[in-house]
Structures are given as structure tokens and as C-alpha cells.
Amino acid sequence: MDVQKEIRSLMKQTFKEKKDTPFSQGFRVFRKGKLIPNTKMLMGNPFYPQSRSFKEWERGFTVAYYRNLERLDEQSEKTSRESFQNKGERNG
Q: In this structure, how many other beta carbons lie within 10 angstroms of the beta carbon of residue 16?
């Protein structure tokens, strides 16, 4: 239980500096890859479940996730398209 309190206080300190909305906090945690100290886990939602702030934080995290997924899909398409074109030039 002490670890959870420590993590929550760390999260509050991190976000007090910038006075962000819960949405932008969740977005930043995903985009910047903010980790819990001494672990490889992303920081979790610092708000109480079922609160509006909790849901907004989750929405920000989810939006960042799907934007990243779209970006990766575009990169994959570009790479495979270039690969296909290069093979076509050699064979054709």
C-alpha cells in the first residue's frame, strides 16, 4: 500500500508543475513513456476511479495510443509500398 501512495504523490508532483488537464496528463504519460521509478511500468492513473478526472485521464491515454497506432500503420504501409516498388523495378 505504501508503494501506491508513493506513486500517487510522485504523479501529483509531476503534474502540479505544469497545471495540466487530466486529458493532457494521460496523453503525456503515453507519449513520453513516463515510468514508475525503478521499474519498467508506465505510471498509472493518479485519480480516483469513477471520477470525471479519472475518465479524462484514460481518454487522453487512449487517444495517444490510437494516434501512435495510426502512425505505425502509416510507416508500415510506406515501408511495404517502397519495398514492393523496389522489387518491381528489379524484376520488371
A: 9
Report field, pTM of the whole predicted structure over 0.85: no
C-alpha angle 38-60-13 in degrees, rounded to nearest 5: 45
Running DSSP on this structure, what letter comes out for residue 48? Answer: P
Q: How far apart are CA 11 and CA 84, in angstroms?
A: 46
What does the pLDDT look like over 4-28, one tens digit per residue? 677 677 666 655 555 689 999 999 9
C-alpha–C-alpha distance, residues 21 and 82, integer Å: 41
pLDDT digits (tens, 9 = 90+) for 72-84: 888 888 777 777 7
